[in-house]
Amino acid sequence: IALVEKHYADAQALFEAGVAHNIWAGISTGNLVNCRQQAGTAAGHLGRWAGSAAHFESGSKLAAEEEDHLRTFALLGDAAFARWQNGEKRTAVSHLVAVMDLAPQLPDPSTDLMALRALKCFGHLVHQLAWRKYGRTDADASVILPGMCSDPRPNQGLKDLPPPVVTFNWLLILWLDFEYTPNSGLWERIAP
Q: Whole-model pTM?
């Protein structure tokens, strides 16, 4: 309730307490992943980007252990944004590349609304970061919100939009890669 009511400091403290006192330890990581997602979202809304990124990264790692590809993808996308906001551009770009590497493991977005949502939100994130880097602040006025990629609430309206163009995301990430992680070998890896 604290997160929905935008009491972000309270929400962050509550979710961090949930992480520290995980009653599901050894049984399931699902609730812990949820706590990490919510704590990262709350921290981001407070401008605590390093903490936000750490929560999203931890949640992504836990989801990967459970082979939950969708949440691994989405949480790492949110971590990339948090690292970017914290001024850690190289780490952010590395995360963006890692997220794109996970995209083929996602469920089919034409039949899975949450996969469609994660891909659309991630594409918007990449679009905003790349165009802002090159001075285009008018490209799309919609803001990037902390936890946007991993938000568990589906949006039925996404079904009416065209499918995400994964190839275009790679192009935009290459722009960022050339700037922040030169000589990473990404071009050689993905170019035909």
A: 0.87
Tokens of 129: 């970061």
Instruction: For the beta carbon of residue 158, count every other beta carbon within 10 angstroms.
Output: 17
Whether residue 39 is predicted with pLDDT greater than 70 in this model: the reply is yes
Q: What pLDDT shows up at residue 8?
A: 66
Checking if the pLDDT of 16 tops 90, the result is no
Three-state SS string across the chain, please?
CCCCCCCHHHHHHHHHHHHHCCCCCCCCCHHHHHHHHHHHHHHHHCCCHHHHHHHHHHHHHHHHHCCCHHHHHHHHHHHHHHHHHCCCHHHHHHHHHHHHHHHHHCCCCCCCHHHHHHHHHHHHHHHHHHHHHCCCCCCCCCCCCCCCCCCCCCCHHHHHCCCCCHHHHHHHHHHHHHHHCCCCCHHHHHCC
Confidence of residue 5 (pLDDT cuts 50, 70, 90): low
Phi-psi region of 47 (alpha: psi -120 to 50; beta: other; left: phi over 0): left
Cβ contact 155:108 at 8 Å: no
